[in-house]
Amino acid sequence: MKEKKETYRPMVSVCCIVYNQELFLRDCFDGFVAQKTNFPIEILIHDDASNDGTTEIINEYTEKHPNLFKPIIQVQNQYSKGLGLIGLKLNIKRAKGKYIAFCEGDDYWTDPLKLQKQVDFLEKHEEYGFVGSYCFIDNNGSRVEEKSNIPFVEEDRDFRLCGDVFSDAKWGPVTRTCTLLCRKSLIDGYADDVLGDIVLETVLARQSFYACYKSFASVYRVGVGESAVQHDYGKALRYNEYVVKNRLKQKELFPDDCPWDEDELDDSKTYIKLKHSIELFRYRDAMHLKKQLKTKLYKNKNYAKRMKGFFSFVLLFVMIKLKG
Question: Given 3-state DSSP classes, what are the helix, strand and coil percentages for the chain, each rounded to the nearest 5?
Protein backbone atom coordinates (compact mmCIF):
# COMPACT_ATOMS: atom_id res chain seq x y z
CA MET A 1 0.00 0.00 0.00
CA LYS A 2 1.41 3.37 -1.00
CA GLU A 3 1.59 5.98 1.69
CA LYS A 4 0.08 9.27 0.57
CA LYS A 5 1.39 12.71 1.32
CA GLU A 6 -0.36 14.65 4.08
CA THR A 7 -1.97 16.90 1.45
CA TYR A 8 -4.23 14.01 0.42
CA ARG A 9 -7.47 13.66 2.32
CA PRO A 10 -7.85 10.03 3.42
CA MET A 11 -10.80 8.02 2.19
CA VAL A 12 -10.76 5.87 5.36
CA SER A 13 -9.83 6.75 8.92
CA VAL A 14 -8.90 3.64 10.89
CA CYS A 15 -9.76 4.14 14.57
CA CYS A 16 -7.81 2.01 17.03
CA ILE A 17 -7.99 2.27 20.81
CA VAL A 18 -5.19 0.61 22.75
CA TYR A 19 -4.30 -0.20 26.34
CA ASN A 20 -1.59 -2.62 27.50
CA GLN A 21 -1.73 -4.76 24.35
CA GLU A 22 1.96 -5.23 23.74
CA LEU A 23 1.50 -8.97 23.07
CA PHE A 24 -1.02 -8.41 20.28
CA LEU A 25 -0.35 -4.98 18.81
CA ARG A 26 2.03 -5.99 16.03
CA ASP A 27 -0.63 -8.29 14.54
CA CYS A 28 -3.07 -5.39 14.65
CA PHE A 29 -0.75 -2.82 13.07
CA ASP A 30 0.57 -5.26 10.45
CA GLY A 31 -3.02 -5.88 9.37
CA PHE A 32 -3.46 -2.14 8.83
CA VAL A 33 -0.25 -1.69 6.87
CA ALA A 34 -1.00 -4.74 4.69
CA GLN A 35 -4.20 -3.19 3.28
CA LYS A 36 -4.15 -2.86 -0.51
CA THR A 37 -6.20 0.17 -1.52
CA ASN A 38 -6.41 2.62 -4.41
CA PHE A 39 -7.15 5.40 -1.93
CA PRO A 40 -5.25 6.93 1.02
CA ILE A 41 -5.99 6.00 4.62
CA GLU A 42 -4.99 7.30 8.03
CA ILE A 43 -4.51 5.24 11.20
CA LEU A 44 -5.66 7.00 14.37
CA ILE A 45 -4.27 5.43 17.54
CA HIS A 46 -5.36 6.32 21.07
CA ASP A 47 -3.21 4.79 23.80
CA ASP A 48 -4.76 5.22 27.24
CA ALA A 49 -1.45 5.48 29.15
CA SER A 50 -0.26 1.90 28.70
CA ASN A 51 2.40 0.77 31.15
CA ASP A 52 3.79 -2.22 29.27
CA GLY A 53 5.65 -2.05 25.94
CA THR A 54 2.64 -0.81 23.95
CA THR A 55 3.81 2.79 23.61
CA GLU A 56 7.21 1.72 22.27
CA ILE A 57 5.51 -0.35 19.54
CA ILE A 58 3.28 2.61 18.61
CA ASN A 59 6.35 4.85 18.31
CA GLU A 60 8.15 2.25 16.21
CA TYR A 61 5.34 2.00 13.65
CA THR A 62 4.83 5.77 13.62
CA GLU A 63 8.51 6.26 12.75
CA LYS A 64 8.27 3.69 9.94
CA HIS A 65 4.98 5.04 8.56
CA PRO A 66 4.77 8.72 9.56
CA ASN A 67 2.08 9.53 6.96
CA LEU A 68 -0.16 6.70 8.16
CA PHE A 69 0.03 6.51 11.94
CA LYS A 70 -1.31 9.41 13.99
CA PRO A 71 -1.15 8.51 17.68
CA ILE A 72 -2.47 10.15 20.82
CA ILE A 73 -0.60 8.81 23.84
CA GLN A 74 -2.17 9.70 27.17
CA VAL A 75 0.00 10.36 30.20
CA GLN A 76 -2.76 9.45 32.66
CA ASN A 77 -5.30 6.67 32.16
CA GLN A 78 -8.60 8.28 31.18
CA TYR A 79 -10.75 5.19 31.69
CA SER A 80 -9.84 5.04 35.39
CA LYS A 81 -11.05 8.63 35.73
CA GLY A 82 -14.53 7.52 34.76
CA LEU A 83 -14.28 8.95 31.24
CA GLY A 84 -15.10 5.62 29.57
CA LEU A 85 -13.79 4.86 26.10
CA ILE A 86 -12.77 8.46 25.49
CA GLY A 87 -10.30 7.30 22.84
CA LEU A 88 -13.21 6.20 20.66
CA LYS A 89 -14.77 9.68 20.84
CA LEU A 90 -11.48 11.48 20.22
CA ASN A 91 -10.64 9.33 17.21
CA ILE A 92 -14.08 9.87 15.67
CA LYS A 93 -13.80 13.64 16.16
CA ARG A 94 -10.38 13.90 14.53
CA ALA A 95 -11.09 11.50 11.67
CA LYS A 96 -10.75 13.10 8.24
CA GLY A 97 -11.94 10.19 6.13
CA LYS A 98 -15.25 9.78 4.34
CA TYR A 99 -15.41 6.38 6.05
CA ILE A 100 -14.33 5.11 9.46
CA ALA A 101 -13.09 1.59 10.19
CA PHE A 102 -12.66 0.23 13.71
CA CYS A 103 -10.24 -2.27 15.22
CA GLU A 104 -9.03 -2.45 18.82
CA GLY A 105 -5.42 -3.24 19.58
CA ASP A 106 -5.91 -6.89 20.52
CA ASP A 107 -7.82 -7.72 17.31
CA TYR A 108 -6.52 -7.69 13.75
CA TRP A 109 -7.31 -7.95 10.04
CA THR A 110 -6.36 -10.90 7.84
CA ASP A 111 -7.74 -9.87 4.44
CA PRO A 112 -5.60 -7.21 2.68
CA LEU A 113 -8.62 -6.27 0.53
CA LYS A 114 -10.95 -5.66 3.48
CA LEU A 115 -11.04 -1.87 3.24
CA GLN A 116 -11.07 -1.79 -0.55
CA LYS A 117 -13.98 -4.22 -0.85
CA GLN A 118 -16.03 -2.53 1.87
CA VAL A 119 -15.50 0.97 0.49
CA ASP A 120 -16.28 -0.16 -3.06
CA PHE A 121 -19.57 -1.60 -1.83
CA LEU A 122 -20.64 1.54 0.03
CA GLU A 123 -19.65 3.73 -2.91
CA LYS A 124 -22.12 1.79 -5.08
CA HIS A 125 -24.95 1.46 -2.51
CA GLU A 126 -25.93 4.82 -1.08
CA GLU A 127 -28.71 3.40 1.12
CA TYR A 128 -26.17 1.28 2.99
CA GLY A 129 -24.27 3.03 5.76
CA PHE A 130 -22.21 0.32 7.42
CA VAL A 131 -20.66 -3.02 6.62
CA GLY A 132 -19.02 -5.81 8.59
CA SER A 133 -17.46 -9.11 7.63
CA TYR A 134 -17.18 -12.71 8.66
CA CYS A 135 -14.42 -13.18 11.24
CA PHE A 136 -12.40 -15.69 13.18
CA ILE A 137 -12.89 -15.96 16.93
CA ASP A 138 -9.52 -16.60 18.59
CA ASN A 139 -9.62 -18.11 22.07
CA ASN A 140 -6.04 -18.47 23.31
CA GLY A 141 -4.81 -19.43 19.85
CA SER A 142 -7.72 -21.72 18.95
CA ARG A 143 -9.71 -20.32 16.03
CA VAL A 144 -13.32 -20.90 15.02
CA GLU A 145 -15.21 -19.31 12.15
CA GLU A 146 -18.03 -16.88 12.85
CA LYS A 147 -20.41 -16.03 10.03
CA SER A 148 -23.18 -13.47 10.24
CA ASN A 149 -26.45 -14.87 11.59
CA ILE A 150 -28.41 -11.77 10.54
CA PRO A 151 -30.99 -12.61 7.84
CA PHE A 152 -30.15 -11.17 4.42
CA VAL A 153 -32.51 -9.93 1.74
CA GLU A 154 -30.12 -10.29 -1.17
CA GLU A 155 -26.74 -11.86 -1.87
CA ASP A 156 -24.06 -11.06 -4.40
CA ARG A 157 -20.54 -12.33 -4.99
CA ASP A 158 -18.85 -10.59 -2.08
CA PHE A 159 -21.62 -9.37 0.25
CA ARG A 160 -24.78 -10.37 2.02
CA LEU A 161 -27.20 -7.45 1.91
CA CYS A 162 -29.10 -7.46 5.20
CA GLY A 163 -31.01 -4.21 4.82
CA ASP A 164 -32.73 -2.74 7.89
CA VAL A 165 -31.23 -4.40 11.00
CA PHE A 166 -32.29 -1.90 13.66
CA SER A 167 -34.49 -4.45 15.45
CA ASP A 168 -31.37 -6.61 15.92
CA ALA A 169 -28.82 -3.84 16.51
CA LYS A 170 -30.72 -2.26 19.40
CA TRP A 171 -30.23 -5.48 21.39
CA GLY A 172 -26.54 -5.74 20.62
CA PRO A 173 -24.00 -5.38 17.81
CA VAL A 174 -24.80 -7.16 14.55
CA THR A 175 -21.09 -7.48 13.75
CA ARG A 176 -17.82 -7.50 15.67
CA THR A 177 -16.33 -4.04 15.98
CA CYS A 178 -13.08 -5.16 14.34
CA THR A 179 -15.01 -5.92 11.13
CA LEU A 180 -16.90 -2.63 11.00
CA LEU A 181 -16.61 0.18 8.46
CA CYS A 182 -19.18 2.98 8.24
CA ARG A 183 -19.94 6.34 6.69
CA LYS A 184 -18.49 9.04 8.93
CA SER A 185 -21.41 11.36 8.15
CA LEU A 186 -23.75 9.03 10.06
CA ILE A 187 -21.89 9.42 13.35
CA ASP A 188 -20.53 12.96 13.10
CA GLY A 189 -23.32 14.28 15.30
CA TYR A 190 -23.07 11.42 17.78
CA ALA A 191 -19.36 11.39 18.71
CA ASP A 192 -20.09 12.36 22.32
CA ASP A 193 -22.87 9.77 22.55
CA VAL A 194 -20.91 6.77 21.29
CA LEU A 195 -20.04 4.96 24.52
CA GLY A 196 -19.18 1.74 22.73
CA ASP A 197 -20.24 -0.70 20.03
CA ILE A 198 -23.83 -1.05 21.32
CA VAL A 199 -24.67 2.63 20.84
CA LEU A 200 -22.49 2.93 17.73
CA GLU A 201 -24.32 0.23 15.78
CA THR A 202 -27.72 1.37 17.07
CA VAL A 203 -27.03 4.85 15.68
CA LEU A 204 -25.87 3.43 12.35
CA ALA A 205 -28.78 1.01 12.01
CA ARG A 206 -31.32 3.72 12.85
CA GLN A 207 -30.19 5.74 9.83
CA SER A 208 -29.11 3.21 7.22
CA PHE A 209 -28.87 -0.38 6.00
CA TYR A 210 -26.23 -3.03 6.81
CA ALA A 211 -24.31 -5.50 4.64
CA CYS A 212 -21.75 -8.20 5.46
CA TYR A 213 -18.56 -8.88 3.49
CA LYS A 214 -18.31 -12.65 2.92
CA SER A 215 -14.64 -12.93 3.84
CA PHE A 216 -13.06 -13.98 7.12
CA ALA A 217 -11.35 -10.63 7.07
CA SER A 218 -10.79 -10.11 10.80
CA VAL A 219 -9.80 -11.89 14.00
CA TYR A 220 -11.58 -11.12 17.25
CA ARG A 221 -9.73 -12.28 20.35
CA VAL A 222 -11.63 -13.47 23.42
CA GLY A 223 -10.19 -14.33 26.81
CA VAL A 224 -8.01 -11.21 26.86
CA GLY A 225 -8.67 -7.73 28.24
CA GLU A 226 -12.22 -6.87 29.25
CA SER A 227 -13.61 -9.80 27.24
CA ALA A 228 -12.42 -12.23 29.94
CA VAL A 229 -15.22 -11.12 32.24
CA GLN A 230 -16.52 -14.54 33.25
CA HIS A 231 -13.46 -15.26 35.37
CA ASP A 232 -13.16 -11.95 37.17
CA TYR A 233 -15.77 -10.34 39.42
CA GLY A 234 -14.38 -6.83 39.02
CA LYS A 235 -14.34 -7.12 35.24
CA ALA A 236 -17.88 -8.52 35.29
CA LEU A 237 -19.08 -5.46 37.19
CA ARG A 238 -17.22 -3.09 34.86
CA TYR A 239 -18.65 -4.79 31.78
CA ASN A 240 -22.13 -4.65 33.29
CA GLU A 241 -21.66 -0.93 33.95
CA TYR A 242 -20.56 -0.50 30.33
CA VAL A 243 -23.69 -2.26 29.04
CA VAL A 244 -26.00 -0.31 31.36
CA LYS A 245 -24.50 3.02 30.26
CA ASN A 246 -24.99 2.03 26.64
CA ARG A 247 -28.60 1.01 27.31
CA LEU A 248 -29.36 4.31 29.06
CA LYS A 249 -27.81 6.23 26.16
CA GLN A 250 -29.91 4.23 23.69
CA LYS A 251 -33.00 5.12 25.70
CA GLU A 252 -32.00 8.79 25.72
CA LEU A 253 -31.41 8.89 21.96
CA PHE A 254 -34.28 6.65 20.84
CA PRO A 255 -36.85 6.52 23.69
CA ASP A 256 -39.65 5.08 21.56
CA ASP A 257 -37.50 2.30 20.11
CA CYS A 258 -35.36 1.50 23.18
CA PRO A 259 -37.68 1.78 26.21
CA TRP A 260 -35.41 -0.20 28.53
CA ASP A 261 -36.65 -0.83 32.09
CA GLU A 262 -34.23 1.01 34.36
CA ASP A 263 -35.12 -1.21 37.32
CA GLU A 264 -34.06 -4.24 35.26
CA LEU A 265 -30.81 -2.51 34.36
CA ASP A 266 -30.19 -1.83 38.06
CA ASP A 267 -31.06 -5.42 38.96
CA SER A 268 -28.48 -6.74 36.48
CA LYS A 269 -25.70 -5.40 38.71
CA THR A 270 -27.34 -6.67 41.90
CA TYR A 271 -27.63 -10.14 40.37
CA ILE A 272 -23.89 -10.25 39.61
CA LYS A 273 -23.21 -9.35 43.25
CA LEU A 274 -25.67 -12.03 44.38
CA LYS A 275 -23.86 -14.75 42.45
CA HIS A 276 -20.50 -13.54 43.76
CA SER A 277 -21.77 -13.68 47.36
CA ILE A 278 -22.82 -17.30 46.80
CA GLU A 279 -19.36 -18.07 45.35
CA LEU A 280 -17.78 -16.61 48.51
CA PHE A 281 -20.23 -18.49 50.78
CA ARG A 282 -21.65 -15.29 52.27
CA TYR A 283 -25.19 -16.30 53.13
CA ARG A 284 -26.35 -13.07 54.79
CA ASP A 285 -24.99 -10.91 51.96
CA ALA A 286 -26.66 -13.15 49.38
CA MET A 287 -30.04 -13.02 51.12
CA HIS A 288 -29.80 -9.24 51.45
CA LEU A 289 -29.01 -8.88 47.75
CA LYS A 290 -31.86 -11.20 46.79
CA LYS A 291 -34.29 -8.96 48.69
CA GLN A 292 -32.97 -5.93 46.78
CA LEU A 293 -34.08 -7.35 43.41
CA LYS A 294 -37.04 -5.32 42.17
CA THR A 295 -38.09 -6.93 38.90
CA LYS A 296 -39.80 -10.19 38.06
CA LEU A 297 -37.18 -10.91 35.41
CA TYR A 298 -34.32 -11.10 37.93
CA LYS A 299 -36.33 -12.57 40.80
CA ASN A 300 -37.01 -15.54 38.53
CA LYS A 301 -33.39 -16.01 37.42
CA ASN A 302 -31.64 -19.17 38.58
CA TYR A 303 -29.61 -17.99 41.58
CA ALA A 304 -32.39 -15.82 42.99
CA LYS A 305 -35.28 -18.21 42.35
CA ARG A 306 -33.59 -21.31 43.76
CA MET A 307 -32.17 -19.67 46.89
CA LYS A 308 -34.97 -19.98 49.45
CA GLY A 309 -32.94 -20.68 52.57
CA PHE A 310 -29.58 -21.83 53.88
CA PHE A 311 -29.84 -25.39 52.54
CA SER A 312 -30.63 -24.23 49.00
CA PHE A 313 -27.83 -21.63 49.34
CA VAL A 314 -25.35 -24.44 50.09
CA LEU A 315 -26.54 -26.41 47.06
CA LEU A 316 -26.04 -23.38 44.83
CA PHE A 317 -22.55 -22.85 46.29
CA VAL A 318 -21.65 -26.47 45.50
CA MET A 319 -23.10 -26.22 42.00
CA ILE A 320 -21.03 -23.12 41.23
CA LYS A 321 -17.85 -24.78 42.54
CA LEU A 322 -18.48 -27.89 40.47
CA LYS A 323 -18.97 -25.79 37.33
CA GLY A 324 -15.76 -23.87 38.06
Answer: 45, 20, 35
Rounded to 5 degrees, φ, ψ at 271 are: -65, -40
Please answer whether residues 30 and 113 qualify as being in contact, where contact means their C-beta atoms are separated by less than 8 angstroms.
no
User: Under 8 Å CB-to-CB from 199, ≥6 apart: which residues?
Assistant: 190, 193, 246, 249, 250, 253
Summarised one tens digit per residue, pLDDT across range 82-93 is 656 777 889 999
Instruction: Give CA 188 to chain center in angstroms.
Output: 19
pLDDT one-digit tens code per residue, 137-147: 999 888 999 99
Report whether pLDDT(19) > 50.
Answer: yes
**Which residue ranges form the domains of the chain, and what is each CATH number?**
12-225 (3.90.550.10), 229-323 (no CATH)
Residue 111 burial (10 A CB sphere; 0-12, 13-18, 19+)? buried
CB within 8 Å of 268: residues ≥ 6 apart: 240, 243, 244, 298
Quote the pTM value.
0.88
